[in-house]
Specification:
Layout: H1 2-30, H2 56-65
């Protein structure tokens, strides 16, 4: 009987601790400042590549994908 009670007490304490950690995490997440205004611009120097469906490969791909 004593083993059952010790398991039960262990589960109670771990549940309480888990709830406390979860509430603390939510409280910290709610305190974060979100001051994003407008569109973000990256600093990448890579060229943007736009794919068009004019090649033979893409035409085959699109016909099979339908």
């Amino acid at each position: 009987m004593d083993v059952k009670n010790s398991r039960r007490e262990f589960l109670k304490t771990t549940t309480k601790a888990s709830v406390a950690v979860a509430v603390g995490g939510l409280a910290l997440a709610g305190c974060k400042d979100n001051k994003q205004v407008g569109v973000l611009k990256g600093k990448s120097t890579k060229e943007e590549v736009l794919y068009t469906g004019n090649t033979e490969y893409w035409k085959t791909y699109y016909s099979v994908a339908k």
